[in-house]
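User: For my dataset I need records formatted as: sequence, then structure tokens, nothing else. Please produce one.
Assistant:
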Amino acid sequence: MYELEEKWYLYFLAVIPLMALLFLYIQFWKRKKQREFGDLELIKKLSPEKSTFKPALKLVVILLALTCLIIGLVNPKIGTKLETVKREGIDIIFAVDVSKSMLAEDVAPSRLEKSKQLVSQIINNLGNDRIGIIAYSGSAFPVLPITTDYSVGKMFLQSMNPGMISSQGTSIDQAINLATTFIDKKDKTNKLLIIITDGEDHSDSAKQAAEEAKKLGLKIMTIGVGTEKGGTIPLKRNRIVESFQRDQNGEVVITKRNAEVLKDIAKSSGGGYVDGNSTKEVIDYVKNALDNIQKTEFESTQMTDFKSQFQWFLGFGFFLLILDVFLLEKKTKWVKKMNLFNEKDN
């Protein structure tokens, strides 16, 4: 396993293809000017020692050197051993509503994108807790099992969209029931389910599911996104709004946040509700709630003892730069004799 310490240096790799394109342009421009000046064969005879292969070789050496130096600045690290680490924390399961109503833009940039931002910010403020992610609409789908790898969690989070679940609607009970399957009875770690939704639940079983979850030791916190006034659901193609979601009567659908449903669900499991439109309010509320939940010791296996590998790349990069100094554009005598690149005069 590896990690990159200074990833932003990777942007400099964009210079490599630009330099290659610039070299090809210069070669094309030189050849064009030579044709204007005179006969190309005559020009070759006037400079018999000039190699046509060496400039390309020098470019390859320089580009390889720059690539190595950039990777060296990134400082790749390689883990050398697996180690079992003991931590204290809780298991947090995020259930994100991906139904079409979450596309409403009464909260910028949209309810769904706001939900992703909230989950990402909560993860950024976690310590040693483990996380899992569920996506749900008419049914629920496990996106990420319980893990300590926050970066993977945020990567899967960004890929969530309404198209990942075919059955539409909003059945919060499906998310709660799936979350209970994340619970291992042998594992004594405290569990918290955080549901992020607009509360437009189309089933009547959410409250009952929350009560059953409480019996299993799963506390539920609900975060409501959207406004009481509501908003339309834009239907987009290539990020351009073409129309709005309509009901069976052809009327434009207005979707509204239902905070009362979310409060009842949270209360049924001994949890709480918070308005998700304010990121700071959510972070403060979650942080305070986590501080009041008893942490449990658990073990996790992870790659440790990461060692820097930058010295190999920097060393090879400087070697190539020194090599480039000794690479002249004249023909090499022994190569000329072998005529490997068809550079020998007839």
